[in-house]
Amino acid sequence: MSQLLSILAFAFSFFVCSAIYTIVYRRRQKKAKETLAADKPMLDDTSYIQEVQHLSGQVGFVVWQQYDILLATQPYDWWTMVDWANYVEAEELDSLDSLRIGAPGQEETELVHVYNQNKVGLKNFDRLKEEYGSLSIAGHSRTLNDDVQIVWFNQSRALRIFTHIDNEAVITRYAETLIRRTFGTPDAMRPAKPVTLQ
């Protein structure tokens, strides 16, 4: 009898967790659709985004969306990456949940605990004064109302965004806002004219 109760308790717990996840997921999807529906006029400028590739994957019960963004610019350097990350932390994220650096062929190093103890700003953080191959930050986005992770790759034209939002148009606008540094301004989340390749 106790084994039957254990199975019933497990089934009930699973049902409750699934229901909560479904409700949260639907709210996030609704928020993303509202952001897209708030059709803002196009910027009178050419987009900095040349191409977006969208992949999705699942970790446990959580579905993640990966957006690989190729910029229509020259490759950026380490100091530009740190400057971008500093801007995003200050203007867009509620808190910094992850800060990682990586070198090609090596495992990434998590620095958020050390950083949160010092709180000197990313530009002044000693561990970021040396160049690495990649830099990533993660936290809760105020604009998307969802978790987001942004990864920059040194000496490249690419950046990567991970989020739960399955909407390429919204994330393209988000990336354009990040690149232009227009969070909190009237130009935030406004699309720009597509790049025309010659």
Provide a descriptive summary of the structure in words.
By secondary structure, the chain is α+β, with helices and mostly antiparallel strands. It is 35% helix and 28% strand. It has 4 helices and 7 strands; from the N terminus they run αββαββαβββα. A 7-stranded antiparallel β-sheet has the order 1-2-7-6-5-3-4. The mean pLDDT is 87.
Task: Summarize the SSE layout with pairings.
Elements: H1 2-37, E1 49-59, E2 62-71, H2 78-91, E3 93-102, E4 109-110, H3 112-118, E5 134-141, E6 146-153, E7 158-163, H4 168-180
Antiparallel strand pairs: 1-2, 2-7, 3-4, 3-5, 5-6, 6-7
Keywords summarizing the entry:
alpha+beta, 28% strand, seven-stranded antiparallel beta sheet, 198 residues
